[in-house]
């Protein structure tokens, strides 16, 4: 009995179908599977210029890679194998898996912790020169200025890093503080020790993200209140009002959640409500934002306290880590203005001239310290 031709060629037919059907679906724009959020911009179209044909092959390849309809299920399988079987990160160049479900950024953060990005003497001197220039500007206006350096999660939760993780004996935050303390003894606010002392009371960073959370924001605001009360003894700076902490048992988001690509990964987090809030979001001054900034709605946030008449008007020039203190600082200052200038941390003269703050506080992640120097902008 002769073998059926269909059976004889079934493997070849199946193979061709696997290739042809996804290709047809990709060309026609049919979405068989939901695209995974990979925390980056996808290539949504093909750039074709008859005068620059050399650019077409890589553009086309990038487009197919991003829009191939089997990309999502294939990535899911890859993530599962790496995470569930080998217990490693699918993208170790982006994120590493620590102990007890804690995850940490790789890349620059790893280089910081290993000491590879410690500052040279020349760079430290550049910081001195930069802050001399800034202090001269602020002192002419009689505005005190502070620089809060937010430690990366690795520095606060060192015990949760993998055993093999390379950690330098020196901290570049401490080296910078020591270098600047002679000329600027009261400039830097370093909450590292505070956070280490409080981490047994509550979780202070997200397990599935690189940011600190609102618990950290609460403790840091208390530290800030104490410092500013000493600096401004005649100003009315109230305590943070009563807070209600809400529990979300199944929070599924964050940088590491996206990198791992495992949908059911989750953590318990706390969020807040302030039942008797006395702060209201006010109309923005309308400062021009930074061209191309990914989060233009975050460039300017303004809050006014309803009852404070002799409080502080505080300007925060911040990055995303300033978001965790926002719910609290708006409740203790007469007027709070937050400027997120796309990780540039500039003086922002127009903002200063218009707002006329009592005090300016820069708040930025340890990873972005170099951005304060002009040569890095």
UniProtKB/TrEMBL annotation:
<dbReference type="GO" id="GO:0042121">
    <property type="term" value="P:alginic acid biosynthetic process"/>
</dbReference>
<keyword id="KW-0732">Signal</keyword>
<keyword id="KW-0574">Periplasm</keyword>
<keyword id="KW-0808">Transferase</keyword>
<comment type="pathway">
    <text>Glycan biosynthesis; alginate biosynthesis.</text>
</comment>
<keyword id="KW-0472">Membrane</keyword>
<dbReference type="GO" id="GO:0016740">
    <property type="term" value="F:transferase activity"/>
</dbReference>
<protein>
    <recommendedName>
        <fullName>AlgX/AlgJ SGNH hydrolase-like domain-containing protein</fullName>
    </recommendedName>
</protein>
<keyword id="KW-0812">Transmembrane</keyword>
<keyword id="KW-0016">Alginate biosynthesis</keyword>
<keyword id="KW-1133">Transmembrane helix</keyword>
<feature type="transmembrane region" description="Helical">
    <location>
        <begin position="12"/>
        <end position="33"/>
    </location>
</feature>
<feature type="domain" description="AlgX/AlgJ SGNH hydrolase-like">
    <location>
        <begin position="96"/>
        <end position="231"/>
    </location>
</feature>
<dbReference type="GO" id="GO:0042597">
    <property type="term" value="C:periplasmic space"/>
</dbReference>
<dbReference type="InterPro" id="IPR031811">
    <property type="entry name" value="ALGX/ALGJ_SGNH-like"/>
</dbReference>
<dbReference type="Pfam" id="PF16822">
    <property type="entry name" value="ALGX"/>
</dbReference>
